Amino acid sequence: MSGRHSGGTGSGLRISALPQTLKMIFKLAPRQLSDEIALAKAEIKRKGTQLGVAGAFFAVALVFVGLLVIGLFIAAIMGLATIMPAWLAALLVSAVCLIIAAIGALIGQNKFKKLMPLVPEDTIRGLKYDLGIAKEGSAFDARILDPSTEQYKAAKAAKEAAAAKATAEKEAKAAAKPDFGPPPTEAELRRRLDLRRTHLTGVRDDLGRELDVKTQTQILLAAAQVRLQDGKEQLSDKIAGFRASARSSAGSATSADGQGLADTIKRRWKPLAVLAASGAALAVLVRRLIKG
């Protein structure tokens, strides 16, 4: 990956680079989340396949359990055949199984009827009624909650039409989406996630340095010291040049020329002196800020 965060960062970090860093984070974070979701889907699919294999083994085990039960019944029939005809023994065992199955079915049917309907209809109807009152107030027609009324049928038809329209719009949007080719493999997703994690780590470290007041203050202090030193050197050079020029022309210059030279020196060294004083004040202020 190329760009500002592709490698190590230098010592020239600036607070002005903070928006670019935040923009990079907001750009990488959704992609990272999307790949994480895709990787989760791939893992779920792989584990689902493994679960299906395990279920197949359980199914084989259940088949053999069924064969075991059949063998037990055959053993019971053959055992009874020693004291009665074989057909009578088989009939007797089948009759016992039929009686047990009939009793269990009757008990289950009675309990199932007591539980019907399975949904809490009164509670659901009350919630729908409360929602209708909250939406429409006194204009709400409670007859749309009764399945035997025309209002209920009309409302149901309207809901079905709205659902069909939403389904059609969803299918149209899905058809309009561009084809990005086959989905990435699990190995490709892991590789992309590792690369992006490394990238995000560099971005986060740079963001921490950019937001570090002490680091930025040290950078500003160093820049101010460099400018102050340059100003001092320029001031020294100017003064030395002026002194040499004054000495060379001291014998032949008139008093008016001497006054003009003095004015020139006075006019030029003042800005440099102001620059030096400002740099010194800035250095003192930054040092106090670091110590505080």
Explained architecture:
- With 292 residues, the chain is an all-alpha fold.
- The protein folds into two domains: 15-117 and 187-209; 213-291.
- It is 80% helix and 0% strand.
- Helix 1 (18-80) runs antiparallel to helix 5 (186-211) and helix 6 packs antiparallel against helix 7 (255-291).
- It starts with 17 loop residues before the first helix and ends with a helix.
Class inferred from helices and paired strands: mainly alpha
**What share of the residues lie within helices?**
over 70%
* Oligomeric organization of the protein chains: single chain
The count of strands amounts to 0
Number of DSSP helices? Answer: 7
Major β-sheet profile: none
Unreliable spans are 1-13
What pattern of helices and strands is seen along the backbone? HHHHHHH
Q: What is the CA-atom radius of gyration, in angstroms?
A: 45 Å
Number of domains: 2
Distance between the termini: 40 Å
The fraction of residues in strands falls at under 5%
Mass-distribution shape: elongated
Give average pLDDT, whole number. Answer: 77
